[in-house]
Amino acid sequence: MQLDKLRGEELDQLFDAILTLKDREECYRFFDDIATISEIQSLAQRLQVAKMLRQGYTYTTIVKESSASTTTISRVKRCLNYGNDGYQMVLDRLDVEKDKEQD
């Protein structure tokens, strides 16, 4: 795991802070203070790319719809295929939540 190199009190504090957020509005407020617009856009874009890759979209379509570079798409794909299943875990949970809302 890449983050093992950074594991420690500071990163634990960041993750603990994120885990205290109660709703989307609190996330907006916290991330607006802690990260730049560009950093937030990059994170959101990577999640969107992961979702699209999982749904079988081609690189060409992903580039057009997300404006992600092919390098970003390749990195995300590598994480989906060989990573720690973080994208899979989150996307599965989002799918479950979406299904609950539709019921």
Largest sheet: none
* Uncertain regions spanning at least 5 consecutive residues: none
Radius of gyration: 15 Å
Q: Mean pLDDT across all residues, rounded?
A: 94
What series of H and E elements makes up the topology? Answer: HHHHHH
| Secondary structural class | mainly alpha
Roughly how much helix do the residues carry, as a percent range? over 70%
Shape: globular
Strand content: under 5%
Explain this structure.
InterPro entries: Trp_repress, Trp_repressor/repl_initiator, TrpR-like_sf, YecD_YerC. It holds the Pfam family Trp_repressor. This is TrpR-related protein YerC/YecD. The chain has 103 residues and is mainly α. Helices cover 76% and strands 0% of the residues. The chain contains six helices and no strands. It has helices at 9-19, 24-34, 37-54, 59-66, 70-82, 86-102. Helix 3 packs across helix 5 (70-82). The longest helix is centred in the middle third of the chain and has 18 residues, at 37-54. The mean pLDDT is 94.
